[in-house]
Write a structure and sequence with these properties.
4 strands; extended; mainly alpha; about 50% helix; about 850 residues; two-stranded antiparallel sheet; 27 helices
Length: about 850
């Protein structure tokens, strides 16, 4: 087989109906009247590009030329002066992180000290009293006395449930047992409930739920209409809670108070039958929360177990508010630790960037990429925070243990522990471990599910010949090269160059053609637009250029390439607009407006097919590799050609027929099932399309080799391909070219594809455990997937294709012209 570069005439215009065999000879192959096969001069490598290692090779083994783009990669590689991979923490980073943890631990030991409920209660009481007086003054109170402020608020905002105080334990307990006196969501709810029902909900002495009516003396405090009931139940409830925060009118200065959100929640839960006791003496959550609220649980006891007089520590709203101050005290050394570590990271990285970029003034600081110096979101930063937080917690716990042992008081250990520090360390560990697991789980290569679902998206309707596909790839290559030239941050540009190099290599590997040593696959701009101009001359059909523009518009660089270096490309974004800046200027068929309209048409079609703009068709896609070389749609007639070619190569499949035969033949040509290390059905489709192509329906263009995989934008294969197909038919073929015949042919092919998939779905269904077995013995796992997963994937695909088919039928119906219809599926 010749190793010379095929000419465009050989690739696109050689209409001999031949297909290459293993020996390189030509064999006559019928095409069923759908067009002629285009002979390609191809050399297949030992490994099937992108899809795994086959068990055989076709033709002579050949290595790809060293260059993939003439005069481009050599220049790009020479400009890379550093590794674009993510920054990693080094010894100095770890030393600073550890030192910061030790210093912060000493600050916690010497300044924060013990967690003190007395200090919290005193701080909270002071804040609550000041707040109550301020609120009372807003209601017209002119004094400075807390008792007067409380009486003023109680007078202005009487509360219906206060009439039931005795029913819920009197002055010392009814604030806890009456749910409408809880300062939380539950309190608002039950206050409104009382207004609309006249009933008060709480618990009795034993903790059982109790519902009592509001007495007549307090019914005047229930609203007379909907608006009043809602206002009394919310606004009136709030101001009455303010009056009870510091005690009540009959119990001031350290009086009963009201339960805060924490105690309220515990009390609500204690009313559940699972926790409720039957007697006051019975221990349980009910008794525990009651003692916590009235202060006896946390009181000091003498040697006889009796409560020391005056030592009761109420855990009401005032204490809960004061706990915020204690948490703030504990948070101070934690914040110091974070600031030291993150500040060091920022300063060191900024100094490194200034040195590496040779920055000499403030005006040049814009050359620094923010993600290279900002102290978050990087592996180094996550690991430094984990180390510093762990050291801090270690120092804190060691101090608490030593003091507890020295004082022989186990309680002191729990009072000395910095719980904010423990929480920060826990969060740091979770974030670090999760990021590490995500990096380890992102294995290179396309999985069997992705390969299978990508194969389902092969609609076989829109085609590009080889040179048109080369133009598409060259435009996509130019999009990235132009973006690199516009990139102002050198390290970010280095990452983009690395992505472009890997992308280019994978595209050329997928094409698997032999190039002369002095030529590259990707065309320079001048040659590129000269080729476009030559193919548009003399009034030639320009539908193919619209298809190229649509695919280029959907191209999203810097996505995953399923290789070991995918982690290095995270965060890279396109910062330029090559299509509008260059493409729309250097050819006169598609302008900026037309390109935008085409993109909007694809987005609109996608929204219709998806059912909503925010919902995704789950499971149809996982990857960013699609068959963009064929306009995003692979070889439609691969199942037809596969049995003939597979039989010529020695496949024994006499017991198979129909869809099972086509599937087995495609898998054979792909080097065997994916589970066995082959390329599966998708690999067989690539091989066939690489050896020849059938004329497409749109504009008379030919089918590009499906082996020319463009690593494109969106992993939701079927949804993306159907969206492009529908938009192209409506915007270009119908609205612009009035080509009803081509759209009718596309519609017929789509219907045929749906029927094929429905047959395949039924075959897979029979392979699911519990279903009737396929008489031909298909096990449903030839693609490396369980039969049940294959069944779900293929039915999701059919659902989207049926929507696309219906939209095309509606568009054709609006033309008021006759068009051929295939029998619709029953779905």
């Amino acid at each position: 087989m010749s190793s010379a570069m095929p000419t465009p005439v050989m690739l696109a215009m050689h209409f001999e109906r031949r297909i290459l065999t293993m020996s390189g000879e030509s064999t006559e192959l019928a095409t069923d009247g759908f067009g002629s096969l285009v002979q390609y001069d191809i050399s297949f490598q030992k490994r099937t590009p992108l899809l795994g290692t086959p068990s055989f090779t076709l033709g002579h083994e050949t290595s790809r030329g060293k260059e993939t783009s003439a005069g481009i990669h050599e220049t790009l590689e020479e400009e890379v002066d550093w590794d674009p991979s993510v920054d990693k923490a080094d010894r100095l980073d770890y030393l600073v992180a550890a030192a910061s943890g030790v210093i912060s631990g000493f600050i916690d030991t010497l300044w924060v000290g013990e967690f003190s409920l007395d200090r919290a209660s005193g701080w909270g009481e002071d804040k609550v009293e000041r707040f109550v007086i301020r609120v009372a003054r807003s209601e017209g109170y002119n004094g400075d006395d807390l008792a007067g402020a409380i009486r003023k608020l109680e007078k202005n905002h009487p509360f219906a449930a206060d009439g039931n105080a005795n029913a819920f334990g009197g002055g010392l307990q009814h604030h806890l047992r009456d749910f409408s006196h809880h300062f939380g969501i539950d309190g608002v709810f039950f206050s409104i409930f009382t207004q609309f029902t006249g009933l008060v909900v709480g618990t009795d002495l034993s903790g059982a739920l109790r519902v009592v009516p509001v007495p007549k003396s307090n019914r005047s405090f229930i609203g007379k209409n909907f608006q009043e009931k809602l206002a009394f139940g919310t606004i009136g409830w709030f101001f009455h809670m303010v009056s009870d925060m510091a005690g009540s009118g009959g119990s001031l200065m350290g009086g009963t108070g009201i339960p805060g959100p924490i105690v309220s929640l515990i009390k609500d839960v204690s009313a559940l039958p699972f926790f409720r006791g039957t007697a006051a003496e019975e221990p349980g959550l009910r008794l525990w929360v009651s003692k916590l609220f009235n202060g006896t649980l946390l009181a000091d006891h003498d040697e006889n177990g009796r409560i020391v007089k005056g030592s009761a520590r109420k855990f009401d709203l005032r204490t809960e508010i004061g706990m915020l101050e204690e948490i703030g005290r504990q948070a101070l050394p934690v914040l110091v630790n974070q600031c030291v570590v993150r500040g060091f990271y920022f300063c060191r990285r900024a100094a490194r960037e200034i040195r590496d970029l040779d920055i000499h003034g403030v005006a040049e600081l814009g050359r620094i990429a923010p993600e290279d110096i900002l102290p978050w979101g990087t592996p180094a930063m996550r690991r430094m925070v984990t180390v510093s937080s762990g050291i801090f917690v270690g120092v804190d716990i060691a101090d608490a243990a030593v003091r507890s042992i020295a004082s022989r008081d186990p309680v002191k250990f729990f009072l000395r522990v910095n719980y904010v520090g423990i929480a920060a360390f826990t969060v740091a560990c979770v974030v670090d471990v999760r990021a590490t697991l995500e990096n380890e789980s992102s294995t290179p290569g396309e999985g069997p599910e992705e390969t299978y679902e990508r194969g389902l998206a092969d609609l076989g309707c829109l085609k590009l010949d080889f040179m048109q596909a080369r133009i598409l790839h060259s435009i996509e290559h130019a999009i990235v090269a132009y973006d690199i030239a516009e990139e102002g941050h050198p390290k970010r540009a280095a990452g983009k160059r690395a992505w472009l190099k890997e992308w280019s290599n994978q595209v050329v590997d997928a094409v698997s053609l032999v190039w002369a040593a002095d030529a590259g696959y990707f065309l320079p701009d001048d040659t590129l637009y000269a080729k476009i101009g030559s193919r548009l001359g003399d009034g030639k059909d320009a539908s193919w250029l619209w298809l190229v523009a649509m695919e280029a518009g959907r191209f999203r660089p810097y996505g995953p390439l399923h290789c070991n270096d995918d982690g290095e490309y995270k965060g890279l974004k396109l910062c330029s607009d090559y299509l509008n800046d260059v493409f729309c200027i250097r050819q006169d068929v598609i302008g900026t407006k037309e390109l935008a309209d085409l993109e909007h048409a694809v987005d609109g079609a996608r929204a219709r097919l998806d059912g909503s703009r925010g919902r995704l068709v789950a499971g149809v896609a996982c990857s960013a590799i699609i068959v963009a070389a064929t306009g995003g749609i692979a070889a439609y007639f691969a199942p037809t050609i596969a049995p003939t070619l597979a039989a010529a190569l020695g496949l024994e499949a006499s017991a198979l027929h129909g869809a099972a035969l086509a599937s087995a033949s495609l898998a054979f040509l792909g080097g065997g099932a994916i589970a066995a290390g082959g390329a599966g059905m998708a690999g067989g489709t690539m091989l066939i399309a690489g050896g020849g192509a059938i004329l497409g329906a749109a504009g008379g263009t030919g089918l590009t080799a499906a082996a020319s995989l463009a690593l494109s934008t969106d992993g939701r294969y079927v949804l993306e391909e159907c969206s492009k197909l529908e938009a192209f038919c409506q915007t270009v073929l119908l609205d612009r070219n009035h080509d009803v015949r081509s759209v009718s042919s596309i519609y017929a092919r789509l219907c045929r594809r749906i029927v094929e998939l429905e047959a395949e779905s039924e075959s897979i269904r029979l392979a699911i455990p519990g279903e009737e077995k396929d008489p031909h013995g298909k096990d449903g796992t030839e693609e490396g997937m369980p039969a049940n997963d294959m069944f779900k994937a293929i039915n999701r695909t059919i659902k989207v294709m049926c929507k696309c088919r219906n939209d095309l039928a509606a568009a054709l119906g609006e033309t008021n012209q006759e068009f051929s219809l295939l029998p619709l599926s029953t779905r």
